[in-house]
C-alpha cells in the first residue's frame, strides 16, 4: 500500500527539513521552500501563488521563483513519489536463508533456584511471566545431548558461546563444571559466559577466571542504589557482592579488565552520578545499565512498577555525563543509539555488506526487530529449546526428551513465519515498521489477536525524525563518528 513518501518538519532550533522516504534523504530547506511544500502537500495551484507574488511586486519574487524551480527539480528526481513502507511485509524466512548451522550460542538454564529475592525480578511477583517447570535443576544428560547435537549439526563456521543462566547459576556450579569439561572435548571452537549475582563468586572465581568466562555481575551501585537486591530473608546484599568483585579484581586483574562487566538495573531511586562515581572509585570500571522491562507486568502490581521504574532518557541526562569517561567499552547514550538506528534506517547511507553497495542486493528484512532463528538456543531445566531466555516457554522451538533432541528446522521456520503472519496486520498501520526493534515474541500474542505496544502514527514518526535531527544538530561530530567502519553501539 503506497503512502505519501515525503514529510517536512522543524528541528528544535527552528530549522526546516524535507525528508524523502523514496530517496532516503534528509534535505535542509529554506522557509520559502517549506512554504511551497505546504502548497504541494495541499494540492494548491502554484501559478496562482506565483502570479500573486508577481502582481504585488514582491521584492522576493525572484527568490520564490528560484525555490519553485528547485521544487520542480526535486519532483522530477522523484523526491515526492509515493512510498510503500510495507514493501517487505510479505517477506518470509526460508530454510535456505536460516538453518541450524547458523547457531552461535547455546545457553543452559542450569537452575531455577536463586539465593536472592530481588524486588524487580522477572520471575517475581512484579511480572506475570512465571516459570511453569517442576524441574528446577538441569540434568547433565540433557546438556550432553544438546552439545552432541551441536557437534553434529552446527559445523565450524562460528565460535559457539556456551552460556549459563538461572536462577543463580553458581548454585549449580558442579553441573557448570561438567558441561564445560564435556563441551571442551566435543566442540572445536567455544567460549563461555555467565551472569551471576556475585554472592558465591568468591568460591568459584578461580575456575571462572582460568576458563576465561565472559562474566556479567549484577550490582546496581553503592549501598544506597542497591536497595532492591535483597536475599531471601530480605537482607541487604551489597557488602558481600562488592567485596567479591574487589577480590576478583585484585586476584585476577588482567582477567577482570578483559572479561568482566557490571550490570546495573536502574530504578526510581538510582542516581547516575553516584553510581558512576562509585564504580570508578571502587573498581575503575563503567557499568552497563538496563531498565525495568515493561513487558508482562502484573496488572495488580502496576502502581509498584511505576514507583520503581525510571525514565530511560532522564536517567542518562546530558550526553556529557556519559562521555566524560575514557573507558572504550562505555555504554552508548540512548539518544545516540536512537540517532544511529534512525540514520541507518532512513538516510540511505548505511549498508549491511558489500553486495548491497555494488550489486544493489538487499539483505532479507523481516518485520519486527526479532533475532534470526537458530542464532541462539536457550535450553530450560525441563529440556525445552527456546530462541532466547527472555521468551515464554509456549514459543519453544523443540525439546530434549526421552534421550533425543527433537527439533526440526523446517518446522521451526514454518512456526516462525506463522507468528509473522499474525503480527503483520498490526505492522501495516505503523510508521516506524522499518525501524522496529520489538521482539516478535513480545508483541502481545493473545490467542489469535496481537496487541503491539510499539505502533507509531505519522505524527509520532515525524516527531522521531525531528528529535534525532535536533540531536545531530547539537552534536554534529556524531555523523562522521557513526560513518566509520569500527563504530559500535554498546547497549
Set out the fold topology.
Layout: E1 3-4, E2 6-10, E3 16-20, E4 25-29, H1 31-42, H2 46-55, H3 61-76, E5 82-83, E6 105-109, H4 140-153, E7 160-165, H5 173-186, E8 190-196, H6 201-210, E9 214-218, H7 238-251, H8 253-259, E10 260-266, H9 272-283, E11 288-291, H10 302-308, H11 312-316, H12 319-322, H13 334-346, H14 354-358, E12 376-379, E13 384-386, E14 398-401, E15 404-406, H15 409-427, E16 445-446, E17 449-450, H16 458-474, H17 477-482
Parallel strand pairs: 6-7, 6-12, 7-8, 8-9, 9-10, 10-11
Antiparallel strand pairs: 1-5, 2-3, 3-4, 12-13, 13-14, 14-15, 16-17
Strand order of the largest sheet: 11-10-9-8-7-6-12-13-14-15
- The CATH first-level class of the domain at 100-345 comes to Alpha Beta
* Fraction in beta strands: 5-15%
The biggest sheet, with number of strands, parallel, antiparallel or mixed sense and barrel status, is: 10 strands, mixed
Distance between the termini: 34 Å
Unreliable runs, pLDDT <50, ≥5 residues? 320-329
Q: What name does CATH use for the topology of the domain at 100-345? A: TIM Barrel
The overall pLDDT, averaged over residues, is 87
The DSSP helix count reads 17
Specify Rg, calculated over alpha carbons: 26 Å
CATH superfamily of the domain at 100-345: Aldolase class I
Shape, please?
globular
User: Any idea what the CATH architecture of the domain at 100-345 is?
Assistant: Alpha-Beta Barrel
Strand element count:
17
Fraction in helix: 25-40%
Q: What structural class do you assign from the helix and strand content?
A: alpha/beta
Amino acid at each position: 500500500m503506497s503512502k505519501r513518501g515525503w514529510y517536512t518538519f522543524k528541528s528544535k532550533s527552528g530549522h526546516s527539513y524535507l525528508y524523502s522516504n523514496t530517496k532516503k534523504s534528509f534535505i535542509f530547506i529554506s522557509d520559502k521552500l517549506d512554504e511551497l511544500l505546504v502548497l504541494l502537500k495541499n494540492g494548491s495551484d502554484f501559478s496562482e501563488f506565483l502570479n500573486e507574488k508577481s502582481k504585488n511586486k514582491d521584492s522576493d519574487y525572484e527568490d520564490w521563483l528560484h525555490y519553485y524551480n528547485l521544487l520542480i527539480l526535486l519532483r522530477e528526481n522523484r523526491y515526492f513519489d509515493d512510498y510503500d513502507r510495507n514493501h517487505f511485509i510479505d517477506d518470509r524466512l526460508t530454510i535456505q536463508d536460516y538453518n541450524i548451522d547458523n547457531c552461535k550460542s547455546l545457553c543452559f538454564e542450569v537452575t531455577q533456584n536463586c539465593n536472592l529475592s530481588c524486588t524487580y525480578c522477572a520471575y517475581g511477583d512484579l511480572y506475570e511471566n512465571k516459570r511453569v517447570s517442576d524441574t528446577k535443576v538441569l540434568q547433565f544428560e540433557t546438556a550432553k545431548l544438546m552439545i552432541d547435537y551441536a557437534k553434529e549439526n552446527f559445523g565450524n563456521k562460528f565460535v559457539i558461546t556456551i552460556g549459563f543462566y538461572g536462577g543463580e547459576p553458581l548454585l549449580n556450579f558442579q553441573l557448570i563444571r561438567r558441561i564445560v569439561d564435556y563441551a571442551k572435548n566435543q566442540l572445536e571452537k567455544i567460549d563461555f559466559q555467565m551472569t551471576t549475582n556475585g554472592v558465591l563468586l568468591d568460591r568459584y572465581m578461580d575456575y571462572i577466571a582460568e576458563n576465561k568466562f565472559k562474566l556479567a555481575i549484577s550490582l546496581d551501585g553503592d549501598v544506597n542504589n542497591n536497595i532492591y537486591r535483597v536475599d531471601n530473608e530480605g537482607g541487604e546484599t551489597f557488602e558481600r557482592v562488592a567485596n567479591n568483585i574487589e577480590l576478583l579484581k585484585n586476584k585476577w586483574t588482567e582477567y577482570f579488565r578483559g572479561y568482566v562487566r557490571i550490570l546495573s538495573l536502574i530504578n526510581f531511586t538510582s542516581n547516575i552520578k553516584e553510581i558512576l562515581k562509585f564504580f570508578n572509585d571502587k573498581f575503575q570500571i563503567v557499568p552497563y545499565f538496563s531498565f525495568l522491562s515493561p513487558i508482562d507486568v502484573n496488572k495488580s502490581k502496576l502502581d509498584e512498577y511505576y514507583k520503581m521504574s525510571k525514565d530511560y532518557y532522564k536517567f542518562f541526562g546530558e550526553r556529557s555525563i556519559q562521555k566524560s569517561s575514557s573507558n572504550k567499552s562505555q555504554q552508548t547514550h540512548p539518544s545516540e543509539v536512537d540517532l544511529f538506528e534512525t540514520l541507518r534506517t532512513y538516510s540511505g547511507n548505511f549498508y549491511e555488506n558489500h553486495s548491497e553497495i555494488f550489486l544493489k542486493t538487499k539483505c532479507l528484512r523481516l518485520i519486527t526487530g526479532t533475532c534470526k532463528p537458530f542464532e541462539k538456543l536457550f535450553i530450560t531445566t525441563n529440556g525445552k529449546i527456546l530462541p532466547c531466555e527472555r521468551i515464554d516457554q509456549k514459543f519453544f522451538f523443540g525439546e530434549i526428551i526421552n534421550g533425543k533432541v527433537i527439533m526440526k528446522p523446517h518446522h521451526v521456520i514454518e512456526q516462525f513465519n506463522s507468528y509473522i503472519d499474525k503480527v503483520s496486520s498490526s505492522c501495516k498501520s505503523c510508521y516506524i515498521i522499518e525501524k522496529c526493534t520489538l521482539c516478535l515474541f513480545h508483541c502481545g500474542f493473545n490467542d489469535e489477536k496481537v496487541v503491539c505496544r510499539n505502533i507509531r502514527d505519522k505524527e509520532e514518526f515525524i516527531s522521531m525524525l525531528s528529535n534525532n535531527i535536533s540531536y545531530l544538530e547539537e552534536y554534529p561530530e556524531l555523523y562522521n563518528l557513526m560513518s566509520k567502519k569500527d563504530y559500535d553501539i554498546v547497549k
